[in-house]
Amino acid sequence: MGQETVLSLLQQAGERYISGEAMSQKLGITRAAVWKQISRLRDKGYGIEASTRLGYRLTMQPEPLERERILSFLGDHPWKENVTVLDSVDSTNNYLKLLGNQGAADGTVAMSDEQTGGRGRQGKSFASPKGVGLYYSLLLRPDCAPAEVSHMTAMVAVAVCDAIEATAGVRPGIKWTNDIILNGKKLAGILTEMSVEWESGTLQYLVTGIGINCNHKRSDFPPEVQSMATSLALELGHPVRRRKRGRAAISAWRYRRPEQERHRARRRQNRRPGQCAWARGSHGERQHGRTAAGQYDIRGHRGGAAGAAGARICGHNLRRGI
Questions:
Q1: What is the pLDDT of residue 190?
Q2: Cα–Cα distance, 192 to 97 (Å, whole number)
Q3: Which residues, in sequence order, are bridge partners of residue 47?
Q4: DSSP strand E in the chain: where?
Q5: Alpha-carbon distance 95 to 97, whole Å?
């Protein structure tokens, strides 16, 4: 008698509780053995609620990153048909750079259940174990000079924070400028890379990768970062649905191109020094940025996950503010 039989009883009970005594009698094992199997199921990502008087209740089961389920909630999003969902890859950034060199379309998205060689800045590794995180990258082909996309990582960071807040009810902060922080620990990381033609200096494409720690346990992180990293499950006290966050993350990535922003340059030059950055949500609300102790955060009125769709950040003022 193993995890499968305990899981079967929990699934049969549906939303009702089933006591440890009842399971032990049906399975012919001790209550301690039931508890052991419950613990193992939790380690695999099953959400199992325990009540002293009522017993156990299954609240969530591990969910695969199914492309069809993600696309079904994207509506008329312009990148909907360019989304690829992988079981495993060395790095979603590497995967998209390969496609970029082969002519992949603007707005191509790659999402993977696992990364075997996830990377951060300066070649640092990013732990990306299977089935617990959200690892995805976006390829863009903006028609502008490389210097005009210097704000890209900061803009994406705002979008990621909006998506997390809309789906989890908590608002992370941004540590300049690649780390998403929650309660003082790293929740997500961002890595932006670009390809530039050497002779002409033409920007061919850029790839921005995101890794969000969703259902990681403390043991899922390498020992050297366990004290500095966290996950949504650890902070919220229960597992979260990755597909839901994947849909929100893609929806939040409607990129407003630099070439569409050029005619607003005069207005940006007149901005007060304290307004180091700003974003405008889907309903036109203005968001003000501020910097402190090397951290940057966007606060103010927001329009939900889609509110980051029109996020725009002035790279020059943002750098000056830091």
A1: 94
A2: 11
A3: 60
A4: 47-51, 55-60, 83-86, 108-112, 133-140, 173-175, 179-182, 185-196, 203-213, 278-280, 286-292, 295-300
A5: 6
